[in-house]
Fold each of these.
Amino acid sequence: MKKIVLFGDSIRMGYDKYVKDALEGAAEVYYPSENSRFGQHALRRLHDWKDAGEWPEDIDLVHWNVGLWDVAEIYGDPPLSSIAHYKDMITRIDRRIRLLFPGAKVVFATTTSVVDEMFEGKRFQRHNRVIEEFNDAAREALAGTDTIINDLYAHSCKCPMEYRSDETHYNTPEGAAYMGGKVITVLCRELGISASEVKLENFRMEDYTADNIGY
């Protein structure tokens, strides 16, 4: 049976259980109960999540993302992370993954889109033009590696509005299936496995607390 690690921000937390359910019997799927937040937080915590979750070292594939916290603009300030800092974190996280899971394929998911107009007038902002800049920076940082890019940004731009739960997230059964389905397609292709159907009427997302999920 294949072994997969998922880690990332609240977008990952919206689809992780869907992926796990769909791959039951084909792969063991591991993920932390914590939001990966910023790139620097993910770099600091990855080995802790591995130890706490007793993730095996013979992981076949790691699928990860960070970015939504890095691009956040609060009270009109620039994004919380600079482009240069974000690129450095992407490079270092990629290197850390290969240290902790030396036999694993690595897949990086681009940061997903937001509904720009729903942020108007709020002190906390995210903008797709900034997300696109950070996604380009991530691609540049990973260009010299064999990391596979899963373009969740492009996929999310086509997501029906009714699948979204707010201006940022996809925390509905349909949203989990839409985003998780794209992740599953990449995992199955790269690992040569097949997924099972997940019936949405019976599907339940992980019971994360608001503090776990963050924003």
Amino acid sequence: MAESPKTVSEYIRTFPPATQQLLQAIRSTIQDAVPEAQEAISYRIAAFTVGGKYLMYFAGHSKHVAVYPIPPLPASTQKQIEPYQASKGTLRFALDKPLPLALIRKLALAHRKRIKETAKK
């Protein structure tokens, strides 16, 4: 078994160039939305944390890239996520379609808000 990547950059470099470009777009979108988020590798995929709590995971696959937002997902995004939802906490995006970066941003911001609210309690 190949050695697990230790950084998000190493992880992204394990994919073909087209997939790398999509993963980098997801990474940049989350970084821009939540600048205090820290990059991590967890479960052998890329992730972001805020205050020690996982914000969102993302991964590349042979036929798609995926974002794993932490449930519950905001009810206001239900219609937007339906075309991409593979399961409760998995959104899949085909390699040959534009990424819904505004949706990814919205999900990152919503979960950051939940993390901050939970920390106040």
